[in-house]
Specification:
- With 552 residues, this protein is mainly α.
- The protein is 60% helix and 0% strand.
Length: 552
């Protein structure tokens, strides 16, 4: 019996990937699947391709350098645990908070609104137009009229608006007017939200009375009720100014938990209006298309707004994404595309976007990392680093973002090489030599390149010689930083093992540098261990030890 030809499963997967992508582009079906179901199938195929490519790497013979044979693809940087995300109210499949009991009033959420975001790189404190300090500097409330505040007709939009404007300096009267406005928005969200001057005044009093819980709560209820109208949600509320105000309210410290709950619910409703518009009742004419604002849209706008604030804004945005994907309000592919789009929005802050990129990779949404890679997030990260070279926090966030995106994913490594990611890391290290954390992460990222296949190294313009020089420069500039010295010596040991670059390591006083660091840190075991390995690798007596030390 004739032997069957072996089946190239990787080629079959890649061919099927192309067919699925074509079906998604054309809006047609594939194997009975369409829409979100087909998108999920695409992500599963991407994962299968990644596994086969990784397996291929482990079993390469003559196709890759000897240093790659028998090795799995290592993470770009050592693995990091996901940052703690701020707690935000859960949202249902239609964007409704699950703690809500009725249309206008919601039960108190179970978690406190956070005051600080997750750890890690948040970049420099936000000082742009979205920051609360910048907004307050632009505000000076009008003096209230003389005498006692008059009564007003709570069912008259004109009188409520007039009272809100005239008595904006008085918190009690402001809250009273906002509660009336919230009730009117509950009854007719389209009418209330269509008046631009009303929305402007609501934002104004929220800024004036930033620390008044009763004003903030009434304001969040008002905006949340407006968001029940899809045309208002998309045409008025999906702006950078509104989304920034909602993010600020959602993360503020307060004993009134419903403030954060209502702010998060409003954001969810705005996004749901864009990605999951309500269907017309059976037999009725389809609703007229909503008028979308002249801007990036709701989801992309949320990401852009989140980059402009404190780190807690980015943490909240990531947490909202997890909830919205989990509740099937939005799919990971759309999230990835909108997030990548946000990189080009004028209001987007580089360090905030790059920080959020890392958080989205590490959040509890397993399909999102590959979707981000497919959407071009690595290329966008590299471009953002190139355009913000003098911004130290952005460069550090960029190294962390690309490291998280690549991870141990073959498709991520390919995208990183095509984007010349190593050049961006080298540029960051040269520009910000005094930043010890950036230098440490840069050293580790550069050292990961020695295990790549030769074609990937060439595509990425990777140079182990430049990497060795940058490593030694960082070590000489941060002699007291034991973590950096450990990373540097480990990297030099890796270069010697994989590239046999004895002369490159020894040049420019490399041997003396290694000995000096071992002498400076006699009690740091890792420095001593890696130092001895490096000295042995360059042909120095392996039993050398700092004066007064041992020769173990």
């Amino acid at each position: 019996m004739a032997r069957e030809e072996p089946v190239d499963e990787l080629a079959e997967i890649q061919a099927e990937l192309q067919m699925v992508k074509k079906a998604l582009r054309n809006g047609t079906g594939y194997l009975g699947m369409k829409g979100e179901t087909l998108q999920r199938y695409l992500l599963q195929l991407n994962e299968k391709e990644n596994l086969h490519l990784s397996h291929k790497l482990r079993n390469l013979s003559g196709e890759a350098p000897a240093s790659m044979r028998g090795q799995a693809l290592e993470p770009f940087l050592p693995s990091q645990s996901a940052p703690q995300q701020p707690q935000s109210p859960a949202v249902g499949t239609n964007g409704r908070g699950i703690s809500e009991g009725s249309h206008g009033e919601a039960a108190l959420a179970s978690g406190d609104a956070p005051s600080e975001g997750p750890g890690g790189t948040g970049g420099s404190p936000a000082t742009g137009p979205n920051s609360s300090d910048a907004r307050r500097l632009q505000l000076q409330h009008r003096d209230p009229p003389s005498g006692a505040a008059p009564a007003f007709n709570r069912e008259s939009l004109e009188e409520v608006h007039a009272h809100l404007c005239a008595w904006e300096a008085v918190p009690v009267e402001t809250a009273k007017a906002l509660r009336a406005l919230s009730a009117l928005a509950y009854a007719d969200a389209l009418k209330v939200g269509s008046d631009e001057s009303i929305l402007t005044q609501v934002l104004r009093v929220l800024d004036i009375h930033e620390n008044e819980d009763h004003v903030q709560l009434a304001g969040m209820r008002t905006i949340c009720n407006m968001a029940y109208s899809a045309p208002i949600a998309l045409g008025k509320l999906a702006s950078n100014q509104i989304l920034s105000a909602l993010l600020a309210a959602a993360v503020r410290t307060s004993n009134v938990k419903e403030i954060g709950a209502k702010a998060s619910e409003a954001i969810a409703r705005i996004i749901a209006a864009e990605v999951a518009p309500e269907e017309a009742p059976e037999g009725a004419a389809p609703p007229a298309p909503a008028v979308v604002i002249d801007g990036p849209g709701a989801l992309c706008g949320l990401f852009s707004a989140a980059t402009g604030g404190e780190a807690s804004w980015q943490g909240l945005a990531a947490q909202l994404v997890v909830q919205l994907v989990s509740n099937e309000v939005v799919g990971p592919l759309l999230v990835a595309r909108r997030f990548t789009d946000a990189a080009t929005v004028s209001t987007t802050r580089a360090s905030g976007w790059l920080t959020l990129a890392k958080q989205l990779v590490l959040c509890d949404c397993p399909d999102l990392p590959l979707a981000l890679i497919d959407a071009g997030a690595i290329a966008a990260s590299a471009e953002m680093m190139r355009d913000s070279l003098v911004d130290g926090p952005a460069q550090l966030a960029g190294i962390e973002a690309m490291s998280a995106l690549v991870g141990n994913r073959w498709s991520g490594l390919q995208a990183f090489a095509e984007a010349k990611g190593m050049e961006r890391i080298e540029g960051a290290m040269k520009e910000h030599l005094s930043d010890g954390v950036l230098q440490t992460k840069g050293i580790r990222a550069l050292a990961s390149g020695v295990q790549w296949p030769e074609d990937v190294q060439q595509k990425s313009s990777y140079s182990f010689k430049r990497s060795v020089d940058l490593t030694k420069t960082a070590m000489s500039q941060h002699v007291n930083n034991t973590e950096l010295q450990t990373a540097g010596l480990e990297a030099l040991a890796k270069y010697l093992d994989k590239m046999h670059c004895i002369e490159e390591v020894k040049s420019s006083g490399g041997e003396g540098l290694v000995k000096a660091m071992m002498t400076r840190h006699p009690g740091v075991t890792k420095v001593q261990t890696w130092g001895k390995i490096v000295l042995d690798g360059i042909g120095v007596d392996r039993h050398w030890a700092p004066r007064g030390g041992t020769t173990s």
